[in-house]
Recover the amino acids of this structure.
Protein backbone atom coordinates (compact mmCIF):
# COMPACT_ATOMS: atom_id res chain seq x y z
CA UNK A 1 0.00 0.00 0.00
CA UNK A 2 1.51 3.37 -0.96
CA UNK A 3 1.23 6.65 0.92
CA UNK A 4 -2.14 7.52 -0.69
CA UNK A 5 -3.51 4.11 0.28
CA UNK A 6 -2.81 4.76 3.97
CA UNK A 7 -4.34 8.24 3.66
CA UNK A 8 -7.47 6.84 2.02
CA UNK A 9 -7.72 4.05 4.62
CA UNK A 10 -7.44 6.56 7.50
CA UNK A 11 -10.16 8.87 6.16
CA UNK A 12 -12.43 5.97 5.21
CA UNK A 13 -12.05 4.54 8.72
CA UNK A 14 -12.83 7.90 10.40
CA UNK A 15 -15.98 8.53 8.36
CA UNK A 16 -17.18 4.93 8.49
CA UNK A 17 -16.59 4.84 12.26
CA UNK A 18 -18.38 8.13 12.91
CA UNK A 19 -21.26 7.25 10.55
CA UNK A 20 -21.71 3.85 12.26
CA UNK A 21 -21.76 5.48 15.70
CA UNK A 22 -24.26 8.17 14.58
CA UNK A 23 -26.46 5.46 13.05
CA UNK A 24 -26.33 3.45 16.30
CA UNK A 25 -27.31 6.57 18.29
CA UNK A 26 -30.20 7.51 16.00
CA UNK A 27 -31.45 3.89 16.01
CA UNK A 28 -31.19 3.65 19.82
CA UNK A 29 -33.06 6.96 20.34
CA UNK A 30 -35.84 5.82 17.97
CA UNK A 31 -36.10 2.40 19.69
CA UNK A 32 -36.19 3.97 23.18
CA UNK A 33 -38.91 6.45 22.07
CA UNK A 34 -40.96 3.62 20.60
CA UNK A 35 -40.67 1.68 23.87
CA UNK A 36 -41.66 4.85 25.74
CA UNK A 37 -44.82 5.19 23.61
CA UNK A 38 -45.80 1.57 24.44
CA UNK A 39 -45.15 2.13 28.13
CA UNK A 40 -47.18 5.36 28.18
CA UNK A 41 -50.07 3.56 26.46
CA UNK A 42 -49.84 0.76 29.06
CA UNK A 43 -49.80 3.36 31.86
CA UNK A 44 -52.90 5.09 30.41
CA UNK A 45 -54.72 1.73 30.19
CA UNK A 46 -53.75 0.96 33.77
CA UNK A 47 -55.06 4.35 34.99
CA UNK A 48 -58.31 3.90 33.04
CA UNK A 49 -58.82 0.46 34.64
CA UNK A 50 -58.20 1.93 38.11
CA UNK A 51 -60.83 4.64 37.37
CA UNK A 52 -63.39 2.01 36.34
CA UNK A 53 -62.76 0.02 39.53
CA UNK B 1 -20.62 23.15 6.66
CA UNK B 2 -17.61 23.41 8.96
CA UNK B 3 -16.67 19.82 8.14
CA UNK B 4 -16.97 20.45 4.38
CA UNK B 5 -14.76 23.51 4.81
CA UNK B 6 -12.25 21.41 6.74
CA UNK B 7 -12.20 18.72 4.03
CA UNK B 8 -11.70 21.36 1.34
CA UNK B 9 -8.80 22.88 3.33
CA UNK B 10 -7.24 19.45 4.05
CA UNK B 11 -7.23 18.19 0.45
CA UNK B 12 -7.15 21.37 -1.65
CA UNK B 13 -5.72 24.22 0.44
CA UNK B 14 -3.02 22.72 2.68
CA UNK B 15 0.30 22.16 0.91
CA UNK B 16 1.79 18.66 0.63
CA UNK B 17 4.43 18.07 3.28
CA UNK B 18 7.87 17.76 1.63
CA UNK B 19 9.25 14.75 3.56
CA UNK B 20 6.15 12.68 4.41
CA UNK B 21 4.06 13.42 1.32
CA UNK B 22 0.27 13.04 1.24
CA UNK B 23 0.10 10.65 4.21
CA UNK B 24 0.86 13.69 6.45
CA UNK B 25 -2.75 14.82 5.78
CA UNK B 26 -3.85 12.19 8.35
CA UNK B 27 -2.54 14.75 10.88
CA UNK B 28 -5.55 17.02 10.13
CA UNK B 29 -8.02 14.45 11.51
CA UNK B 30 -5.72 12.73 14.02
CA UNK B 31 -4.88 15.88 16.02
CA UNK B 32 -8.45 17.35 16.13
CA UNK B 33 -9.83 13.96 17.26
CA UNK B 34 -7.16 13.79 19.99
CA UNK B 35 -8.23 17.30 21.11
CA UNK B 36 -11.90 16.19 21.12
CA UNK B 37 -10.95 13.14 23.25
CA UNK B 38 -9.28 15.41 25.82
CA UNK B 39 -12.35 17.69 25.77
CA UNK B 40 -14.75 14.73 26.13
CA UNK B 41 -12.84 13.36 29.14
CA UNK B 42 -12.63 16.85 30.66
CA UNK B 43 -16.45 17.02 30.41
CA UNK B 44 -16.60 13.59 32.15
CA UNK B 45 -14.31 15.00 34.88
CA UNK B 46 -16.50 18.11 35.42
CA UNK B 47 -19.73 16.05 35.31
CA UNK B 48 -18.22 13.56 37.80
CA UNK B 49 -17.50 16.41 40.22
CA UNK B 50 -21.14 17.46 39.73
CA UNK B 51 -22.33 13.94 40.60
CA UNK B 52 -19.92 13.63 43.55
CA UNK B 53 -21.22 16.90 45.01
CA UNK B 54 -24.80 15.64 44.76
CA UNK B 55 -26.07 17.21 41.53
CA UNK B 56 -27.72 14.18 39.90
CA UNK B 57 -29.16 13.05 37.46
CA UNK B 58 -28.40 15.72 34.81
CA UNK B 59 -24.64 15.63 35.35
CA UNK B 60 -24.57 11.85 35.37
CA UNK B 61 -26.18 11.69 31.90
CA UNK B 62 -23.65 14.23 30.59
CA UNK B 63 -20.66 12.34 32.06
CA UNK B 64 -21.78 8.92 30.87
CA UNK B 65 -22.54 10.26 27.37
CA UNK B 66 -19.28 12.16 27.05
CA UNK B 67 -17.25 9.10 28.15
CA UNK B 68 -18.78 7.02 25.36
CA UNK B 69 -18.15 9.73 22.74
CA UNK B 70 -14.59 10.13 24.06
CA UNK B 71 -13.92 6.40 23.71
CA UNK B 72 -15.18 6.48 20.09
CA UNK B 73 -12.82 9.37 19.26
CA UNK B 74 -9.87 7.81 21.13
CA UNK B 75 -10.38 4.58 19.16
CA UNK B 76 -10.19 6.57 15.92
CA UNK B 77 -7.11 8.47 17.20
CA UNK B 78 -5.31 5.17 17.85
CA UNK B 79 -6.38 3.74 14.47
CA UNK B 80 -5.40 6.81 12.42
CA UNK B 81 -2.11 7.02 14.35
CA UNK B 82 -1.32 3.44 13.33
CA UNK B 83 -2.20 4.16 9.70
CA UNK B 84 0.24 7.09 9.76
CA UNK B 85 2.93 5.18 11.67
CA UNK B 86 3.15 2.25 9.24
CA UNK B 87 4.47 4.22 6.21
CA UNK B 88 6.46 6.73 8.34
CA UNK B 89 7.94 4.58 11.14
CA UNK B 90 7.64 1.25 9.32
CA UNK B 91 5.50 -0.28 12.08
CA UNK B 92 1.82 -0.22 13.05
CA UNK B 93 2.58 0.08 16.76
CA UNK B 94 5.46 0.72 19.13
CA UNK B 95 5.45 0.96 22.93
CA UNK B 96 6.28 4.66 22.76
CA UNK B 97 5.24 6.84 25.76
CA UNK B 98 2.55 8.79 23.84
CA UNK B 99 1.04 5.68 22.26
CA UNK B 100 1.14 3.67 25.49
CA UNK B 101 -0.40 6.41 27.67
CA UNK B 102 -3.13 6.92 25.03
CA UNK B 103 -3.87 3.19 25.05
CA UNK B 104 -4.06 3.35 28.87
CA UNK B 105 -6.48 6.31 28.51
CA UNK B 106 -8.65 4.21 26.17
CA UNK B 107 -8.70 1.33 28.68
CA UNK B 108 -9.53 3.68 31.59
CA UNK B 109 -12.68 5.00 29.88
CA UNK B 110 -13.61 1.61 28.45
CA UNK B 111 -13.45 0.44 32.08
CA UNK B 112 -15.70 3.37 33.06
CA UNK B 113 -18.30 2.30 30.47
CA UNK B 114 -18.08 -1.36 31.54
CA UNK B 115 -18.55 -0.34 35.18
CA UNK B 116 -21.60 1.77 34.28
CA UNK B 117 -23.08 -1.08 32.27
CA UNK B 118 -22.56 -3.74 34.93
CA UNK B 119 -23.69 -2.09 38.18
CA UNK B 120 -27.49 -2.58 38.20
CA UNK B 121 -28.24 0.03 40.89
CA UNK B 122 -28.23 3.39 39.02
CA UNK B 123 -27.43 5.46 42.13
CA UNK B 124 -24.42 3.33 42.99
CA UNK B 125 -23.26 3.14 39.36
CA UNK B 126 -23.34 6.95 39.18
CA UNK B 127 -21.28 7.29 42.39
CA UNK B 128 -18.67 4.71 41.31
CA UNK B 129 -18.56 6.30 37.85
CA UNK B 130 -17.98 9.75 39.40
CA UNK B 131 -14.93 8.49 41.32
CA UNK B 132 -13.63 6.76 38.17
CA UNK B 133 -14.25 9.89 36.06
CA UNK B 134 -12.32 12.12 38.49
CA UNK B 135 -9.35 9.77 39.05
CA UNK B 136 -9.18 8.63 35.41
CA UNK B 137 -8.73 12.19 34.16
CA UNK B 138 -5.21 12.19 35.69
CA UNK B 139 -4.06 10.32 32.56
CA UNK B 140 -5.07 13.17 30.18
CA UNK B 141 -2.22 15.58 31.18
CA UNK B 142 0.14 12.57 31.29
CA UNK B 143 -0.78 11.76 27.66
CA UNK B 144 -0.37 15.41 26.63
CA UNK B 145 3.03 15.93 28.30
CA UNK B 146 4.35 12.42 27.56
CA UNK B 147 6.34 13.70 24.56
CA UNK B 148 8.14 16.16 26.85
CA UNK B 149 8.50 13.89 29.89
CA UNK B 150 10.01 10.94 28.02
CA UNK B 151 12.12 10.42 24.91
CA UNK B 152 9.57 9.37 22.32
CA UNK B 153 9.24 8.58 18.63
CA UNK B 154 5.97 10.54 18.49
CA UNK B 155 6.34 14.05 17.00
CA UNK B 156 6.54 16.89 19.54
CA UNK B 157 3.70 19.47 19.75
CA UNK B 158 3.66 21.78 16.72
CA UNK B 159 1.00 24.25 17.89
CA UNK B 160 1.02 24.55 21.70
CA UNK B 161 4.72 25.38 22.11
CA UNK B 162 6.45 27.97 24.27
CA UNK B 163 8.10 29.49 21.17
CA UNK B 164 4.87 29.61 19.11
CA UNK B 165 3.42 27.28 16.44
CA UNK B 166 5.98 25.49 14.27
CA UNK B 167 3.71 25.06 11.23
CA UNK B 168 3.46 27.03 7.97
CA UNK B 169 0.44 29.39 7.99
CA UNK B 170 -1.64 27.33 5.51
CA UNK B 171 -1.13 24.12 7.52
CA UNK B 172 -1.92 25.90 10.80
CA UNK B 173 -5.10 27.42 9.33
CA UNK B 174 -6.20 24.00 8.01
CA UNK B 175 -5.60 22.43 11.40
CA UNK B 176 -7.58 25.16 13.18
CA UNK B 177 -10.54 24.77 10.78
CA UNK B 178 -10.46 20.99 11.37
CA UNK B 179 -10.31 21.48 15.16
CA UNK B 180 -13.39 23.74 15.01
CA UNK B 181 -15.25 21.26 12.75
CA UNK B 182 -14.51 18.26 14.99
CA UNK B 183 -15.41 20.22 18.14
CA UNK B 184 -18.79 21.09 16.62
CA UNK B 185 -19.24 17.44 15.62
CA UNK B 186 -18.49 16.42 19.22
CA UNK B 187 -21.15 18.87 20.52
CA UNK B 188 -23.68 17.45 18.02
CA UNK B 189 -22.92 13.81 18.88
CA UNK B 190 -22.89 14.54 22.62
CA UNK B 191 -26.33 16.21 22.43
CA UNK B 192 -27.70 13.13 20.60
CA UNK B 193 -26.17 10.81 23.21
CA UNK B 194 -27.56 12.89 26.13
CA UNK B 195 -30.99 12.78 24.45
CA UNK B 196 -30.76 8.95 24.43
CA UNK B 197 -29.79 8.97 28.12
CA UNK B 198 -32.82 11.16 28.96
CA UNK B 199 -35.29 8.93 27.08
CA UNK B 200 -33.82 5.89 28.89
CA UNK B 201 -34.21 7.72 32.24
CA UNK B 202 -37.87 8.42 31.44
CA UNK B 203 -38.28 4.75 30.48
CA UNK B 204 -36.86 3.62 33.83
CA UNK B 205 -39.23 6.00 35.63
CA UNK B 206 -42.28 4.88 33.61
CA UNK B 207 -41.39 1.18 34.13
CA UNK B 208 -41.25 1.69 37.90
CA UNK B 209 -44.81 3.14 37.80
CA UNK B 210 -46.29 0.06 36.12
CA UNK B 211 -47.63 -2.63 38.47
Amino acid sequence: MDSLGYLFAAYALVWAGLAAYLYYLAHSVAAAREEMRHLEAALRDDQARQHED
Amino acid sequence: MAMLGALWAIFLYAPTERVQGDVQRIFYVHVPMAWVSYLAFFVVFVASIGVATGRRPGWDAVGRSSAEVGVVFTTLVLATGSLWAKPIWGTWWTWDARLTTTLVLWFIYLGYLLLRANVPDEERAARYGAVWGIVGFIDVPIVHFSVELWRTLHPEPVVLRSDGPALPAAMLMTLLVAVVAFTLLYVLILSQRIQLERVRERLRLASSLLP
Summary: Chain B has one domain: 2-6+24-159+170-200. Residues 2-6+24-159+170-200 of chain B form one domain. Chain B has a mean pLDDT of 90. The first helix of chain B runs from residue 2 to 13.
